């Protein structure tokens, strides 16, 4: 019970530290460094050693961590769990300054397929990264800084029912007109500006046409810079309500971004714990890896998404560090295995007809193996067997999901990597409700099951794979 409680509390802390993909990668870096993983750079040569542990980041929104077995030789396989760091949200536009009806508002654009009605009447703040210009000795340098305003600073108010009598017959959101958060009233902003201008000389007040000076001043204060040193940013609106263990029996997690920080954390924690002891890699002939990608929610087509070469680049560079034969990477890929981990749809008690009768994942039921005959999920009989066999050996629950024949099927990074790299893949995920809402829920037990299943996979795959005969 103590270990389970620790995993869940660690996950809640991870969620609360990760309002954006940038913060999730930053928190992942901290966990990996604390566990003895060494950071390498894609811009530099790699000098890797068997038995050592490494990680690298791309764009600070994608992170790949790996542990090289002590018995690894070039051409051996990679045992990977892949997940993603991004979630649907409202991202700030390049020009955020909007003034209407006596209000200062912030221009935002939808990212991914969110349930946008859930963003109304929430206490919102802003987080992300900011590009900063720093002057030293008459020379300028530039860096990105992560930022998060802790206090609720804006809100998207709904229209009163008295002004929209038919709203309960269907709440329709126009994402251009209705999703503008209110930052302040114009009159209070002007009074605040006047007070600042008449205050101490070291108070900086800027008035740039692209953004409200009030917003820039708040960001600068949080970062510890002058507003004029802010060159650009990638920011998003965030809910300020923290993630919590909840429910009458404390069996649920209520949080934003469970899709897909739950799978990201569980896989990362499993890798760390499966490589923590001095002997954990002694008999490992492969490379254990976790790859957490950005931009899954919008199709993965970016320099740091799963559709980019980042996975193949990682496999190639690691292989080439231990052998110069260019043919070894093809051999390594065919010996490798990917667990594509993305949250799954739990059975909803109020909408039970939305699930196929024989495939209804439930809370506390463990990881869900996702199947689709049209390869919207990359699972096949061989890859599902591997994951199921590990569950059986460790007495872990496992479930299956197939979407109804009369409904479209979603997808994951699984088919993208399976087709792009040529790696055997199984698609899995923990069951949850309210997917893509600003506030989602899953079961505490399934966090534990996911962590234990991924850890067992890292420990067992090498031995199990040696017993499987396909394409012989």
Structure description:
The protein is 28% helix and 26% strand. By secondary structure, it is of the alpha/beta class. A nine-stranded mixed beta sheet has the order 1-2-3-13-4-14-18-16-17, sandwiched between helices. A six-stranded antiparallel beta sheet has the order 8-7-10-5-6-9. α5 crosses α10. The longest helix is centred in the last third of the chain and has 22 residues, at 444-465.
Number of strands: 20
Class derived from helix and strand content: alpha/beta
End-to-end Cα distance, whole Å, is 44 Å
Residue-averaged pLDDT, rounded?
A: 94
Q: Please give the largest β-sheet.
A: 9 strands, mixed
Series of secondary-structure elements, N-terminal to C-terminal = HHEEEEEEEEEHHEEEHEHHEEEHEHEEEH
Q: What amount of the residues lies in strands? A: 25-35%
Number of helices: 10
Shape: globular
Neighbour order of strands in the largest sheet: 1-2-3-13-4-14-18-16-17
Give helix % range.
Answer: 25-40%
Radius of gyration: 24 Å
* Low-confidence blocks of residues: 201-206
């Amino acid at each position: 019970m103590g270990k389970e409680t620790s995993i869940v509390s660690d996950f809640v802390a991870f969620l609360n530290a990760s309002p954006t993909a940038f913060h999730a990668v930053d928190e992942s870096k901290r966990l990996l460094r604390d566990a003895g993983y060494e950071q390498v750079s894609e811009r530099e040569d790699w000098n890797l050693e068997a038995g050592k542990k490494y990680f690298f980041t791309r764009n600070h929104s994608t992170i790949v961590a790996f542990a090289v077995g002590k018995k690894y030789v070039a051409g051996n396989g990679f045992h990977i769990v892949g997940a993603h760091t991004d979630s649907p949200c409202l991202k700030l536009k390049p020009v955020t300054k909007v003034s209407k009806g006596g209000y200062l508002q912030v221009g935002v654009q939808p990212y991914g397929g969110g349930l946008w009605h859930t963003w109304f009447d929430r206490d919102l703040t802003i987080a992300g990264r900011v590009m900063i210009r720093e002057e030293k000795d008459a020379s300028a340098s530039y860096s990105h800084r992560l930022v998060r305003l802790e206090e609720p600073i804006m809100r998207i108010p709904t229209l009163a029912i008295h002004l929209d009598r038919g709203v309960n017959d269907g709440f329709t959101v126009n994402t251009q007109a209705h999703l503008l958060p209110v930052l302040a009233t114009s009159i209070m902003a002007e009074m605040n500006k006047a007070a600042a201008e008449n205050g101490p000389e070291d108070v900086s007040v800027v008035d740039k046409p692209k953004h409200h000076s009030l917003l820039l001043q708040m960001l600068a204060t949080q970062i510890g810079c002058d507003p004029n040193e802010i060159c650009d940013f990638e920011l998003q609106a965030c809910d300020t309500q923290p993630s919590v263990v909840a429910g009458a029996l404390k069996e649920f997690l209520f949080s934003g971004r469970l899709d897909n920080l739950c799978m990201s954390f569980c896989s990362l924690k499993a890798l760390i714990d499966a490589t923590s002891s001095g002997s954990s890699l002694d008999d490992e002939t492969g490379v254990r890896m976790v790859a957490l990608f950005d931009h899954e929610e919008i199709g993965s087509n970016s320099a740091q998404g799963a559709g980019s070469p980042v996975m193949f680049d990682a496999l190639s560079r690691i292989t080439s560090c231990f052998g110069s034969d260019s043919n070894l990477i093809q051999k390594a890929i065919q010996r490798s295995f990917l667990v594509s981990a993305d949250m799954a749809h739990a059975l909803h008690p109020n909408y039970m007809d939305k699930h196929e009768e024989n495939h209804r994942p439930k809370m506390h039921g463990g990881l869900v193996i996702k199947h689709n005959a049209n390869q919207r999920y990359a699972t096949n009989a061989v890859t599902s067997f591997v994951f199921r066999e590990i569950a059986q050996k460790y007495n872990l629950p496992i479930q299956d999901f197939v979407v109804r024949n009369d409904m479209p099927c979603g997808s994951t990074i699984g088919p993208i990597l399976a087709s792009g790299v040529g790696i055997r893949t199984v698609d899995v995920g923990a069951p949850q409700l309210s997917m893509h809402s600003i506030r989602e829920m899953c079961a505490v037990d399934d966090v534990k099951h996911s962590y234990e299943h991924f850890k067992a996979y890292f420990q067992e795959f090498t031995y199990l794979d040696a017993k499987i005969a396909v394409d012989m």
